[in-house]
Amino acid sequence: MYYTKLTEVFAKNIMLRAGRRQLSVRNKDDILHAVDGAYLSMQPRTYKKVKVQNTATKKLNRTGVLDNLAQRFEDYFNAPALKTQADFDDWHKKTCDDFLVDINNALDLAGYQNVCYGKAQKIVNVTFKNLYLFDDVGANLEYFKFCHFILDSANMHWYNSVSKKKVTTPWSKLSDKSYMDIQKDIRQYLPTQTKYPANPFEAEFYVWSDYRF
Fold first, then answer.
1. Torsion angle of the four alpha carbons 104, 106, 108, 113, in this order, in degrees rounded to the nearest 10
2. Where is the domain boundary, 121, 144, 167?
3. Is residue 4 a part of any domain in this protein?
4. For the chain, what is the domain count?
5. Per residue in 23-68, pLDDT tens?
6. Residue 23 domain-assigned?
7. Are residues 65 and 108 in contact, defined by beta-carbon separation less than 8 angstroms?
8. What is the pTM of this model?
9. Same structural domain for residues 122 and 201?
């Protein structure tokens, strides 16, 4: 796995939010710091209101939603590491689906439109990226072996520049099928080039750094 100065900005931000330096991927309270940061990257400011709110539901309650997601990550890191890409893909899909149920229930109660799978993949994938900077990651690298490539505006710009399959749908509006089609395409492409690592999770650190502006 790669750990370079490209990751320092992520590490610094998470450590500052946590208020301490020792963070573990196996501790739910620590994981919540990674989830909180990933939630902001999901761009919640873009939620759209769809109905008049009453005083009992005017504020979006995200606490339980993020707690449930952190619990799934704690369970993941405290269980034996998954052995195949297919097993990880299944876990990832279930995690995104469960998050969508939770966040869309909360959004509905607060009078907002539901969000799509693209938002779910963003918070799940960025959480992994944040957790990769925790202090005990060296003893837990096997849990990151099959992680996905984050899809956001910068990374989709890169993808469309190298893929024959041009995607015009914004990352936030991607369906689960479109998302996995892109992941599989990236997995096939990366080993054919030499600029970035062949592993999608590792490559994303570098692609995002090159294309974020």
1. -50
2. 144
3. no
4. 2
5. 999 999 999 999 999 999 998 888 888 866 554 555 788 999 999 9
6. yes
7. no
8. 0.89
9. no
